[in-house]
């Protein structure tokens, strides 16, 4: 890890360190990089210069001309929003899509539309989990 001293890296700040002196972040190799505790860093991607390396950590100094940003391809969810569900307007008490063409692969739950592909993936995942659980129980007894 000592070879990394002097490198400039992008890191994602995720939590507070156990000693509460730093924020913990991780680089693209998931190596732990300690950065100064600044409220504007939490949950953001920042650019740092690595200035110290220990056995299981690096320490990074934020690059002054760099701006923290939220690494996401979608806007963050609002409080109370659930991912995977799309709220559609209710017109005249009838649940339906905003456009005149109904979606062919959607399930309506109240005024929410749930994609059938998401349901298939969930079903397959639950089936695999049940099979693994059955295997483990069989081996234990």
What is this structure, in a nutshell?
With 141 residues, the protein is an alpha+beta fold. Helix content is 18%, strand content 34%. The protein is extended and about 50 Å long.
What does this structure look like?
- The protein is an alpha+beta fold.
- It contains one helix and ten strands; from the N terminus they run ββββββββββα.
- Residues 90-101 have low confidence and may be disordered.
- The chain has two domains: 2-62, OB fold (Dihydrolipoamide Acetyltransferase, E2P); 85-136, no CATH class.
- It is 18% helix and 34% strand.
- It has a five-stranded mixed beta barrel. A three-stranded antiparallel sheet has the order 6-10-9. A two-stranded antiparallel ribbon has the order 7-8.
- It has one helix at residues 116-140, and strands spanning 8-16, 22-26, 32-36, 45-53, 58-62, 85-87, 90-91, 94-95, 106-109, 112-115.
Number of strands: 10
Measure the end-to-end span: 46 Å
CATH class of the largest domain: Mainly Beta
Q: How much of the sequence is in beta strands?
A: 25-35%
CATH topology (level 3) name of the largest domain: OB fold (Dihydrolipoamide Acetyltransferase, E2P)
Transmembrane segments: 118-137
Organism: Liparis tanakae (Tanaka's snailfish)
Keywords: Membrane, Transferase, Transmembrane, Transmembrane helix
GO molecular function: tRNA (N(6)-L-threonylcarbamoyladenosine(37)-C(2))-methylthiotransferase activity
């Amino acid at each position: 890890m000592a070879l990394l001293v002097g490198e400039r890296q992008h890191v994602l700040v995720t939590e507070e360190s156990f000693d509460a002196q730093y924020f913990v972040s991780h680089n693209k190799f998931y190596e732990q990089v300690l950065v100064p505790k600044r409220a504007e860093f939490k949950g953001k991607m920042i650019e740092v210069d690595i200035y110290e390396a220990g056995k299981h950590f690096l320490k990074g100094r934020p690059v002054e001309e760099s701006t923290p940003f939220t690494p996401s391809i979608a806007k963050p969810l609002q409080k109370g929003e659930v991912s995977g569900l799309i709220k559609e307007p209710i017109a005249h008490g009838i649940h339906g899509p905003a456009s005149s063409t109904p979606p062919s692969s959607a399930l309506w739950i109240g005024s929410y539309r749930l994609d059938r592909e998401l349901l298939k993936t969930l079903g397959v995942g639950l089936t695999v989990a049940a099979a693994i659980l059955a295997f483990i129980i069989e081996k234990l007894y």
